[in-house]
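Q: How would the structure tokens look for this protein?
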Amino acid sequence: MTSRPTQESTLLEGETSRAMNSLSERVFHRKTKSPEEIQIKTGLSNFIITQLALLAALWAGCFPLRKAFAAPEPDRQVPFKVSSVRLAGFLQPRIIANARSRLLAMDEGALLAGFEHRPGTQAWIGEHVGKWLHAASITWAYTGDPSLRAKMDRVVNRLLRTQKPDGYLGTYLDKDRWTSWDVWVHKYVLLGLLSYYERTGEPRALDAARKIGDLLTNTFGPGKRDIIASGEHVGMAATSVLEPIVLLYRATGDSRYLEFANYIVSSWDQPNGPKIIQSLLSTHSVAQTANAKAYELMSNLVGLCELVRTTGNRSLLKPVLIAWDDIVRRRMYITGGTSLNEYFQKDYYLPNEGNVSETCATVTWLQLNLQLLYLTGEPIFADVAEKIIYNHLLAAQHPYSATFCYFTPLSGYKRYTSEMNCCVSSGPRGIALIPTFAYTLTSKSICVNLYNTGIASLPLSPKVTVVIHQRTLYPLDGGVELNIDPSHPVRFALSLRIPSWCPKAVASVNKGKPIAGKPGTYLSIYRQWRQGDRVTLRMEMPAVLIKGTHTNQGLFAIRRGPLVLCADEALNPKLRPITMAGLNANAASELKPARRTGTGAIRERVFAAPGFMLERQNGGAVKPIPRTVFLIPFAEAGATGGRYSVWLRAPS
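A: Here is the predicted structure in token form.
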């Protein structure tokens, strides 16, 4: 039977409309019941009281930066410590490669050259050590690798020796301070030091961060130097220091840092400012905000989320949600990436070739979705995070080496490199973030956000720990088995994320009565859990033929579950050039797993679909010749240096 193509625009809007129609009500009015609250049975009040106390404890325990000065209210979802989670399966090789081949192998001298030999050879060279420390700190907390910890300690020791008496820790000469990317560099140094302090508790890192914070607050502000005039991209590069300044306030409780954060936000509305909030509220468009520079704009929005978390002023979420909705509906590729030539483009302008989705933007877009997941508890943000991770983020990382792409087009070639540039430094941060949202805690439940074989040891109280063994072939198969082993019998809700793309999901406990889930929600099971309880979840994972619109008019693509598939010339010798290849209208319904590629080589994760190749005949006419199209995940395409394409021709 021929499958009916799903239009690209309909696909994107369908994934957001269910959540966005009522999201504002749930985010800004806490009394409104969510679908999850309605599903959970009565008799939950005692559990909620216990979990609220635990949530507050986890708020401090999972985030030491929040111990000194806790936010006025916890997130709707709080991630467990990353050390509580171990992922195997599909994601494990990528995480291991990132830890061993990139972070552990990084040249310490190259990271520190701009500080030890001022001025740096590049205006933003100082960002690299901060990005590395951020990724390495999370990864060390996850792996516990003593070699990585020793390397972190060495890097921090050398870095702190370069800090000047007034707190300056950049790469510029004194005469050039606070020009170009200098504040930006301090942003990443702060993020790196605070991340290191958060995981290690090393007081010298916090002391150095405080010195930077003091210098910034003494330098910028009303009657002082203008922070907008001290950074690139309408000042957004400089004002993105908002994120670590808020984190520094939470770590110390020093009100000067919160005052400085508020100054940063107010500076956006200066005559020379980017007017981020004002523009988003009036235009509802990231492309019409400031100069539309994607990475810097989203970095400021991540900082705004941290300010919401700290002050409890949830009205500041409105412009962030407007930006998120605009990106998802009009500026996000089907692979989860966004931006072209580093900027947000006009509505629905998403060319597949060229400088597509710089990795810095991909990672920051992932961060923004995780921020919104924690702040709102809405599963749609985990859905988008999943799309980003399994597609554009993993596509930017070479599957077998320590290299990353600066840009990752949907059609063309992947230019992997190990050189130290902004995107190669950002990519490892994205990979390091993957385990952080796998399991989260709400006032009612443990949420399972990420499906991947592994084990998690999750504390529910000082006396009760729940161990979850997860077995699955996801994202290649929708079957998931979770063994729930609490140290003592305990009542709580286990909330299973049902992705928006999943048309049907059914769960059961100990082979009991099936429980149906709805796409784009959490399927919550509230009961008393005992050792040996087993949850089985089955999510239908049909292949979907996506009909291109706008810049993809006349093209087809295939998505199977969370994975966007791709045709690689290296695996399709009869489809060269790939630009002349196409998919039949029944390509998705007839998609089958294949053991061999078009070269005859045995390979994992290969699918075969009916298609065609346009070939010129002797008479000059172009004729479609039936061909089998061999497809692999976009995350793995182009790894051998050949041409590939996500979008293929549709029958004329």
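The chain has a mean pLDDT of 91.

The chain has four domains: 12-32+275-435, 34-56+441-539, 110-272, 543-649.

Upvote if useful.
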